[in-house]
């Protein structure tokens, strides 16, 4: 109370810049929701495209107002994405996924996610070695080309799933999303193996070690997610929070899911795999042990958090596309024509394995 009296009700906030940035993004998300609702029946526009266009327009306005210095007012950090925005998106996808369709096609999903990722990695690495090496952009070692292959073979299914409807195309949706989840584990193991890559000492033992690391990462991450989901179901069933407050039931579900993701990251596992399987287990066991009001609340709360996170990401991508600072760095480092050539070559090489995988679907 004494601290509150000292500060006073009329004292100015500590950082107006941060408040203005957050306020602008909240306002833009509201605009995206309204415009997306008005364009609900459009065949050519959806909420993600709407957010991208609004982000581009806002970035252009900020760019002109700032005197062509920058197009964003909020610095996007890696922690913001991996700690706050990604977990609700992946968890809700696991919570809402059609489980029968997913597990019925689990072998196909694993084939696309593991073997398909290795094919993408091989094609992209060889393509980068053969094409980028001719552009004279600097001396790159074999490990650099392999790292390029590992990075670009890690596909992000979040944007793709935005244009798919789980009810209209359940098979395609489960294959695309499942491939993205398994692809994450494969890409993590690939990149970590490349970091310790030693070509002169490469042997069959190293290859078997790579396979073992992948199985360990996949199995341990899945086990952690399943364990967190079962533990939440056991706690809610035994303690029966609903007799006193539904808020506690909802809080336990949210916090246990988030805790599983953070534990996976702390243990250098795949947080995406963990929180995805945690969502599947919670929707199958925990969700049926809570009260009826908590079922409705959790279903809409998880979907709302995921929706806001996705809209924020697309907004920022639209604004960041016009970031003049990044373009200046590219222009100062390489010739403009050379930079465009690198982008074209990389895009072409990446599209080859992706097109091959999609043709199989």
Automatic annotation (TrEMBL):
A single GO cellular-component term on record: plasma membrane
Transmembrane segments: 16-39, 51-68, 80-97, 109-133, 145-164, 171-194, 214-236, 257-282, 302-319
Catalytic reaction equation(s): Na(+)(in) + H(+)(out) = Na(+)(out) + H(+)(in); K(+)(in) + H(+)(out) = K(+)(out) + H(+)(in)
Gene Ontology biological process terms in this record: regulation of intracellular pH; sodium ion import across plasma membrane
Membrane disposition: Multi-pass membrane protein
Subcellular location: Membrane
GO molecular function: potassium:proton antiporter activity; sodium:proton antiporter activity
Record InterPro entries: Cation/H_exchanger_CPA1 (IPR018422), Cation/H_exchanger_TM (IPR006153)
Keywords associated with the record: Ion transport, Membrane, Potassium, Potassium transport, Sodium, Sodium transport, Transmembrane, Transmembrane helix, Transport
Top-rank taxon: Eukaryota
Principal cellular location given in the protein's record: membrane
Keyword Signal: no
Residue span(s) of domain Cation/H+ exchanger transmembrane: 29-328
Protein name: Cation/H+ exchanger transmembrane domain-containing protein
Lineage: Eukaryota, Viridiplantae, Streptophyta, Embryophyta, Tracheophyta
């Amino acid at each position: 109370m004494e601290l509150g009296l000292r500060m006073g009700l009329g004292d100015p906030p500590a950082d107006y810049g941060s408040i203005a940035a957050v306020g602008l993004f909240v306002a833009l998300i509201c605009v995206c929701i309204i415009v997306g609702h008005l364009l609900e029946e459009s065949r050519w526009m959806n909420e993600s495209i709407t957010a991208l266009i609004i982000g581009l327009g806002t970035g252009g306005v900020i760019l002109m107002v700032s005197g062509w210095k920058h197009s964003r007012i909020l610095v996007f950090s890696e922690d913001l994405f991996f700690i706050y925005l990604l977990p609700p998106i992946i968890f809700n996808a696991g919570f809402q996924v059609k489980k029968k369709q997913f597990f019925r096609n689990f072998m196909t999903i694993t084939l696309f996610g593991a073997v398909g990722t290795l094919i993408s990695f091989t094609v992209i690495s060889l393509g980068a070695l053969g094409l980028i090496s001719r552009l004279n952009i600097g001396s790159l070692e074999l490990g650099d080309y392999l790292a390029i292959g590992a990075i670009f073979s890690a596909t992000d299914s979040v944007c793709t799933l935005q244009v798919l409807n789980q009810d209209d195309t359940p098979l395609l949706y489960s294959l695309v999303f499942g491939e993205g989840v398994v692809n994450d584990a494969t890409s993590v193991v690939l990149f970590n193996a490349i970091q310790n890559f030693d070509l002169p000492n490469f042997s069959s033992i190293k290859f078997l070690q790579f396979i073992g690391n992948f199985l360990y990462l996949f199995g341990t991450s899945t086990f952690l997610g399943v364990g967190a989901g079962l533990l939440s179901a056991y706690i809610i069933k035994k303690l029966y929070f609903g007799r006193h407050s539904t808020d506690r039931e909802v809080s336990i579900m949210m916090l246990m899911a988030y805790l599983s993701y953070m534990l996976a990251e702390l243990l250098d596992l795949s947080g995406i795999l963990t929180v995805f399987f945690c969502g599947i287990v919670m929707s199958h066991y925990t969700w049926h042990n809570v009260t009826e009001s908590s079922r409705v609340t959790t279903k809409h709360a998880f979907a709302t958090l995921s929706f806001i996170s996705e809209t924020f990401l697309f907004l920022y991508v639209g604004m960041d596309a016009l970031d003049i600072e990044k373009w200046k760095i590219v222009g100062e480092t390489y010739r403009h024509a050379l930079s465009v050539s690198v982008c074209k070559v990389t895009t072409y090489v990446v599209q080859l394995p992706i097109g091959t995988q999609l043709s199989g679907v």
